[in-house]
Specification:
Layout lengths: L6 H10 L5 H11 L2 H16 L10 E5 L6 H6 L5 E6 L2 H14 L4 E5 L2 H4 L3 H10 L6 E7 L10 H12 E12 L9 H13 L7 H8 L9 E11 L4 H11 L10 H14 L7 E11 L1
Parallel strand pairs: 1-2, 1-4, 2-3, 4-5
Antiparallel strand pairs: 5-7, 6-7
Helix pairs in contact: 1-11, 1-12, 2-11, 7-8
Length: 294
């Protein structure tokens, strides 16, 4: 952002900021929010508690679903030396990881380009994945970090049941995290999505990970599991309005899900400027963690 930009010029830049690739939007979020620090803290606590006797990690295997170019690679690579599988539908972030693997001569990390909603949702497909990709090995950890957005909440139960019964080892764990569906604070990502998507498209965020965790407690295959849930608050800010708006458009699922009109984008952009950026105000995200252990 240039310091000489007028408000009108900033608004125009904000309107078109959502036209960049989603990987760029996600990279801005990752670099300028506390989201990844929050996830890493919960994840490493889980690893220490669940696998205290596996100090070298040589026998541990993990799967990251929808890994993108996020730091699952750095976090999990050293702890899961038996095998780390990074699955994503997008070849671009996987290409970055492949380059790192090649440059660092890492032979226990494997990238998998696939849509998990077809590859892992149904039992027959998951069994094929286990045979072809995992070579019939079981997994000690499965993580779904901000990847459940791409799977209808109506099939989460089948997904988790399939992951648990077919892919997970007896001592295995699952860690999922996503934006809370319920948050009344009007400076939150949840409120912004529910407000604008509700106003223009009549929809709201119905992907409630917290409620789903409670539902799992009564599921036959999870009654003996330890189900732990917690909600954390993370913050995002960058002193660049165009990049700030790029993240806003990612949160509002533009353009892949909701194709806002020019007038709607103008109203949203002006709202963000007047209520957030003008006052150098951080965007808040409440996010729910679901940890399942055996």
């Amino acid at each position: 952002m240039s310091g000489s930009d007028s408000i009108e010029e900033l608004i125009q830049k904000g309107i078109v900021a959502g036209d960049v690739d989603m990987n760029e939007e996600n990279a801005i979020w990752c670099s300028h929010s506390s989201d990844k620090v929050d996830i890493a803290q919960v994840l490493m606590k889980l690893v220490r508690q669940q696998f205290p006797l596996s100090s070298t990690g040589n026998d541990l295997r993990a799967l990251s679903i929808g890994c993108g170019s996020e730091p699952q690679f750095q976090i999990l690579e050293s702890a899961f030396r038996g095998g780390l599988y990074l699955l994503d539908i997008d070849p671009h972030p996987l290409s970055i990881i492949k380059t790192n693997i090649k440059n660092l001569s890492i032979n226990h990390v494997q990238t998998v380009e696939a849509d998990y909603t077809t590859t892992l949702l149904h039992a027959p497909d998951a069994k094929k994945f286990k045979k072809d990709v995992l070579k019939d090995h079981e997994l000690d950890l499965i993580v779904l970090h901000h990847s459940l957005y791409y799977c209808s909440a109506s099939v989460w139960e089948e997904l988790f049941n399939t992951l648990s019964t077919i892919l997970l080892s007896e001592r295995g764990a699952i860690h999922a995290v996503m934006m809370s569906s319920r948050c009344k604070e009007n400076d939150s990502t949840t409120w912004l999505y529910n407000h604008f998507a509700g106003k223009y498209f009549g929809v709201h965020n119905d992907q409630d990970l917290k409620a789903f965790g409670e539902k799992l407690r009564n599921h036959n295959n999870f009654r003996n599991a330890n189900i732990h849930q917690e909600t954390h608050k993370v913050k995002f800010f960058i002193n660049d309005f165009e990049k700030y708006m790029a993240v806003i458009w990612m949160i509002l699922l533009y353009p892949n899900v909701h194709n806002y009109s020019v007038e709607q984008k103008k109203e949203i952009t002006e709202y963000i400027y007047e209520n957030f950026f003008k006052y150098q105000k951080s965007l808040i995200q409440e996010q729910d963690h679901l940890v399942i252990t055996r």
